[in-house]
Design brief:
Strand content: 15-25%
Oligomer: single chain
CATH architecture: 3-Layer(aba) Sandwich
Largest sheet: 9 strands, mixed
Radius of gyration: 18 Å
Number of domains: 1
Distance between the termini: 26 Å
Number of strands: 9
Number of helices: 8
CATH topology: Rossmann fold
Order of helices and strands: HHEHHEHEEHEHEEHEE
CATH class: Alpha Beta
Length: 273
């Protein structure tokens, strides 16, 4: 997970934050979503490598403890489809864990992990870095909150503020894709009351206090935030993309989480402002 503002970085060094990475506190719904998104991700990597005719370059937004990286590396047929794997995060706790996991598994020849704020992805457009696949897994896409977010004004946030915050990350991410590359949102919460209750359960498992009730996101007094989506909301947030290029894939049969694949066509190059 990625903290959203610089003054929240220390929040991710707390015991509550560490619990969000501990399997002991993860609910069955979250665990099953993790594996469902991993199965779909393997398919995407294989398809892209076959389409390109060579191994692909991946950017992982919010690499966390490198869980996905490790799982991919353990499957030879998938790992050989990857040329370069760059991972970014802003949490010192996550970065320390991720770098250790990569080092002990001798993956440093292919994997590069660094501290980087996803809101600054636009800075990379001036470099020669481009990717065939950009991923944001395990509900991280719903963790980005507006700069105006405050525990005191949480009920005053409007959809436009949330949309602008979301686009500040994913517009430049889309622009960093090579033609016919893909943006992969591995798991996002589906907006309904049962999912909201399951979000609450997870945070309470991690000893956090939920402070929202009727918003399209769940937030805690400890500063954590997770947004829920509908297909309509995703299409609105990605309003610069042809909606026909956005695919929605259910990750379960009980309307808890879905995965999103967005294909970048050569003729739909984005001029990023």
């Amino acid at each position: 997970m990625l903290p959203i503002r610089d003054d929240m970085t220390e929040m991710y060094n707390t015991s509550e934050a560490c619990r969000t990475l501990n399997e002991k506190y993860i609910t069955a719904y979250l665990e099953q979503a993790q594996w469902a998104e991993f199965i779909e991700l393997k398919k995407v990597i294989t398809e892209l490598a076959e389409r390109k005719g060579s191994p692909i370059d991946i950017l992982d937004i919010g690499i966390g403890d490198a869980r996905i990286t490790i799982h991919l590396s353990e499957i030879e047929e998938i790992w050989k489809c990857i040329e370069r794997y760059d991972g970014i995060d802003i949490s010192d706790v996550c970065l320390k864990l991720a770098k250790k996991n990569v080092r002990v598994r001798h993956l440093s020849d292919k994997v590069n992990i660094r501290k980087f704020d996803a809101r600054n992805l636009g800075q990379l457009l001036d470099s020669d870095k481009r990717y065939d696949l950009i991923i944001c897994t395990y509900f991280t896409a719903g963790n980005f909150v507006p700069d105006s977010y405050s525990l005191n004004t949480i009920d005053d946030l409007d959809d436009l503020e949330i949309k602008n915050s979301f686009q500040s990350i994913f517009k430049p991410a889309y622009a960093l894709l090579r033609p016919f590359g893909e943006l992969f949102l591995g798991s996002v919460y589906i907006d309904n009351t049962s999912t909201e209750e399951r979000q609450r359960q997870f945070y309470e498992n991690c000893s956090m206090t939920v402070i929202t009730e009727t918003t399209p996101f769940t937030a805690t007094k400890e500063g954590f935030w997770s947004f829920r989506f509908t297909e309509k909301r995703i299409k609105d947030f990605f309003d610069w993309v042809d909606s026909e290029k956005i695919r929605f894939i259910p990750l379960d049969t009980y309307n808890f989480a879905m995965m999103i694949r967005i294909i970048k066509e050569e003729s739909k190059m984005l001029f990023y402002e």
